[in-house]
Amino acid sequence: IRVLDLEPASSPNAGLCAALRLVRLADQPTYEAISYTWGQSVFPERLHIGGSHLPITENLAEALRHFRARSENRTLWADSVCINQQDNNEKSHQVGMMADIYKIARNVLVWL
Q1: For residues 76 and 34, is the Cβ–Cβ distance under 8 A?
Q2: In the chain, is it the N or the C terminus that has fewer CB atoms within a 10 Å radius of its CB?
């Protein structure tokens, strides 16, 4: 699966920057899963990943701003970012793994 290494920020209004990396669930990686509502199907916010900008929902952006650390990266899993939403095969496969993804997570963070 992919996990999101969310960069820290001292200001809650700072832009959202992160890196994605692959991990194997069998290796028991350390990450926290975010459970959140997608809200409306509009993507007004941007998550900066490398040189790209990934559109994300306002609700996910608020969750990431709330949960990010002030001084160090925080490793998270959020379905709309960590699963390639343009790849139906990947979505189907990883949706089937979601119980394990949440079970293996160190914490499950809830944002409503």
Answers
A1: yes
A2: C
Q: What one-character-per-residue DSSP string does 13-30 give?
A: TSPEEEEEEE--GGG---
Q: Which of 4, 13, 110 is nearest to 65 (CA)?
A: 13
How far, in Å, CA of 48 to CA of 57, rounded? 14
Hey, which residues does 33 pair with through a beta bridge?
A: 77, 108
| Pair of tokens at residue 58 | 């306002």
Specify the pTM.
Answer: 0.93
Question: What average pLDDT does the segment 58-77 reach?
Answer: 96
Amino acid occupying residue 96: G
Joined tokens for residue 37? 């509502």
Q: How do residues 5-34 score in pLDDT, each as one tens digit? A: 999 999 988 999 999 999 999 999 999 999
8 Å CB contact between 36 and 58: no
Instruction: Record the tokens describing residue 24, joined without a space.
Output: 């194997």
